[in-house]
Design a protein that fits this description.
5-stranded mixed sheet, 4-stranded antiparallel sheet, alpha+beta, 6 helices, 33 strands
Length: 492
Amino acid sequence: MQNNTPTPTFNCPTCEAKIEPVAGMVAMKCPYCGNTIVIPESVRTILQYPNNATYNAPVSSYTPSVNPSQPPEYIPSLTDVTNLAKQGKLEEAAKAYSKITGLNAKDSMFSVQSMAGIQPQAPAPTAQATPEVPRARFEPQYTPPPVINQGGYSSIPQRTVRRGRSCVSVVFQIISVIVFIVAFILPKLGNLLPENLPFEIPTDISFFSTFTEDPEPAFVKQITSFGYKGTGPGMFENARAIGVDGSGNVVVADFGTGRIQIFDANGTYISEFLPDDFERTQYSSSIAVSRDGNIYIPNGTLIHVYNENGELLNDISDSERDFEYVVLGADDVLYAVTDKDFEPTIVRFDRNGVIDLEIVNPLSNISEDVSTNGIIGVDNFGNIYYCDAFNPVILKFSPSGEFIGQFGGDSPAGEGYTPGKFVNPLQIETDNQNRIYVVDFFNIQVFDTNMNYLARIEGGYYGVAFNAQNNMYGTSTLDNNVVKFEIQPPSQ
């Protein structure tokens, strides 16, 4: 008699999607947001297989095969991992532990070394496989950072990063809210208090005093804005990634819904579409828009290419990589940040969609820290800019992948805004004059082509994009709309 008992489900604590657990696994990756989650003990149960065959979950874990007539593929349980570690089979144990928990190879090796009673050592870099297709490959070695001038260059404090991505997003959101309240809300409340108070409010606190409202740079002028909170046409639930095509149309992606909306240069709503697999792309914070209106959206091992009518034109795929971030150069050449063998790598594609440049572990040029993943930007000359997720320094590479220099660094704790220093860079973009715009948490900082600090644009933004006339569009973090700026060329 067939068992019709429904498979128990539980909700992902990050994106709240309903998930069916995999028998025998203590943790798994959410198929929607990609975060590693622990399966509640109450739903770890026996699953029913075809032909009334059952599998006892506590014995070991498995991954269901594509063909239901085939038996499940077994992998070791946590008990097996512990036994392997104690027997000294660390590599085998680490691979199994990575499958069970979703941790990367380095962190898994740290864990199994602890299980074996071995003092964990710093993991060695993962060897890169020899690519099948010949390509220009640049693997930088660690060298001390060059001291060029005082225009924003800095040395970087060393620190080892081993934090999980799922925890980082939650912690970052909490810190963001606290910092925003302290930095912006509390100072403005002072203006609402009566003048004759029985006590005096201190005004010389360094943290508050540094968040003064500087005048806008002379070359920047806000000219309009469009959109507001909502779900209808022309409205946004969480506007973040943005791009502009060659005709001046503005493409905006909603974070959390995956909805793509298209506007004309003045902000008039044109159309919208939802990608076919929006359940996976809805949490992407990166899109790239070509001059002919093609929209590039990273999605794990794929980069989807849509036109502005919502038609899927192409998929750029690589089963060995996870694509995290995409950007197009001035000539519409595609660049991406990938995660291959647990190492972040910058890649560039040629016109045939073949990778012709790799910069492996870019952070190794200035630090021995463990790199995570990051963001990139490309200027009109093909120079590449990179910033690691946990190290707010902008690295500059030549079009052939050689390390050129660096700028930025951590904004000193407790000192608020510091020119040329960053809290949490979200995007790197360049205008038609090759000035560099770093979208930070509370402002946009502008640098010249030699990486010297010029000015900052007030207000929080998630992303920016430039049209052919050098107008800049930015997605506001506070007003949930798009702000348009007129950018003047440098004075002669």
